[in-house]
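INFO  loader      accepted 1 record
INFO  loader      residues=137
INFO  predictor   begin
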Amino acid sequence: MKLLKLASFVLTLAVMLCAFNVQANSGVEDGKAIIELNDGIIGYWEYNVTGVDPVYQNGIMHISKEDGNYVVNLELPSGTIPTEDVEVNGNEIKFALYAEETRVEVNVAIAGDTLTGSGTTDQGPFTMTGIRKAKPE
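INFO  predictor   done
INFO  writer      dumping tokens
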């Protein structure tokens, strides 16, 4: 009888672990399958920039991957700024954006849950720091 209970317990445990593993590896976000679960740069990053106009100082950087290409968008209280010419090399990202019709090139490095970066505007150089955040509501 004890052997039957033990076998039943082991079988139940094995089924539960398999179900958990399948669920953990089949994530879907906004209708898109999450293909690269271990891509450390993808996500939402709350950032602060020093040396720029106050309207651009704080926001959320959203880094995603669509059709095999990285996409970076900056969400500010005043709206979203798309970027272009996104290049990723390991944990380093380069991209450009337009702020008040001026092209701004940004270099960002990600280490774990922290982000550091820099760039230059017509007002001079700036630095950027940030931390990973959960998906904003």
